[in-house]
Amino acid sequence: MTTTSRRIAKLLFLASAAALPAAKTNTSTIEWGPCNQTEVNTTGTAPAQCATLPVPLDYTNTSSVETLDLQLVNIPATIQPCKGSIQFNLGGPGATTRQDLATLGYAFLNLTGGEYNIVGFDPRGTGNTLPFSCVANELEAQTMLQRFTQGGNASDTALGTTWAGADLTAAMCKRNGNETGTLIGTASTARDLISVVDALGEDGMLRYWGLSYGTTLGATVASMFPERIDKILLDAVQNPHEYYHALADFQEWTQTDSVFSSIFTSCVDAGPEICALASLKKTASQLEDMYWNFLYDLKYKPIPITDVNVMVDYTTVKTFVVDLLYSIDGWPAFTNILFAIFTAEAENDIATALSNMLPATTTTTLVDQTLPLSSWAGIHCGDRFPRTQNFPDMLAVYHELTNLSHTFGDVLMAREMACARWPFEAKERYAGNFGAKLPRSPMLLIGNSGDAFTPLTSAYNVSRAFEGSAVLEIEGFGHASISVPSSCTLEYVSRYWKEGRLPGEGTRCEVEAKPFGNVTWAEIFRRQ
């Protein structure tokens, strides 16, 4: 991100987390039991247990007795005696935790040495935990989906339409989510982490591993409650200053274009026997230029897919590309699609290739499809301090984002504009400084050199604020260390959880998982 705005009025500090005492919660033991399989499907996962925990609905209202039920999942330690529990947040904001944590349970047990319980909960505003929705019916849901998928550069009028639509979306979210929209902020979720610590009845200390948005949550809880932290790992680190105090998450997108270009470089390096696109005998730069030329043509001439009555346009392709940058797993399929497009003899052949970019068909209602968008907006927009009703302000944001990322900058505008016009604020927003000296073990931060969404720069920015912390660089492509299998990562991460020992300054991990390869974590774990 660019230079962070720190212009915070004194009144905001009066409402900061530091001004509020840590809430006392029920310290009784959590009663774990079988998971409801319609909510957390544990078929084929590590053995998992579920529970609910009542916590204060509004931590800022100390006289209130209202509670909400956190929905928790636990994957028990495989080695005894157990050293306690590590809480996880796998990203977002707006994403649930329980199902993904159960699915990844075996991996996290291995990465942490098997001596800790793996615990997580669905954050406020997600799943069944104080759900936040901007829509009341299918028509409103359809409208919201259309507005949020509109690329800011998809047409000559798209940016103005997106700005007007953001005002309508914000008003709709206030109308339908007003009862919960102020109670789902990150500071409240940070307090929920401490409430879970108290209820676990262990040593009263938080052990935490946060990924992506989970790093902002982690930086928040470590700054609010440094005395309650045992060990904390931030993985795929966001810039928390910009998360709260800027009109967009600028730094988040500074590596996106270079990672996208690496798809073409990796294809050429792999050769035509592995990557068909390389058989066109073009340089990586030439292949990428062919992609951009095709995309610009698509802006003015979308391709109809008559079999399913759907049109593939500029925004469809951009959205598809963003999804595949989360890991290298989708790179072979993407380059195969491009090869089919670039060698097509007729428009029907192009349509057939593009059909592979369409989202999978689903029976999920439109209302349910909007829930992740609603949750994202409710949490992030409610946390964000700056707002504006001035279109030129957002025009400047648009230009900065598109200068930072040709690949994705314009697609971000619908959500950033919605936040700019957001009609309410979280009751508690963390407005203090980030950083502290943690009492037991310094913080470990991890960043991938080829992460399209959280650049290494952010990890070093946060590390400088937490005394004694260290950054582990992973030399691979993907979002967060979990997306890049590596025996080196396993060694350093498991050592941190076992001994609290950090890697030395400048430590870099090579990875076994390479583009157009097939190495998995299961293979890495078998080698140990």
From TrEMBL:
Extract the GO molecular function terms from the UniProt entry.
hydrolase activity
A single Pfam family it belongs to is Abhydrolase_4
Alphabetical UniProt keywords: Hydrolase, Signal
The segment(s) forming the Peptidase S33 tripeptidyl aminopeptidase-like C-terminal domain are 407-509
Record-annotated AB hydrolase-1 domain positions: 115-256
The answer on whether this UniProt entry bears the keyword Signal reads yes
Among SUPFAM superfamilies, the record links this protein to: alpha/beta-Hydrolases
Leader sequence range is 1-19
User: Is the keyword Ribonucleoprotein assigned to this protein?
Assistant: no
What PANTHER family does this protein map onto?
Answer: 2-SUCCINYL-6-HYDROXY-2,4-CYCLOHEXADIENE-1-CARBOXYLATE SYNTHASE, AB HYDROLASE-1 DOMAIN-CONTAINING PROTEIN-RELATED
In which family does this protein belong, per the annotation?
Belongs to the peptidase S33 family.
* Name by which UniProt lists this protein: Peptidase S33 tripeptidyl aminopeptidase-like C-terminal domain-containing protein
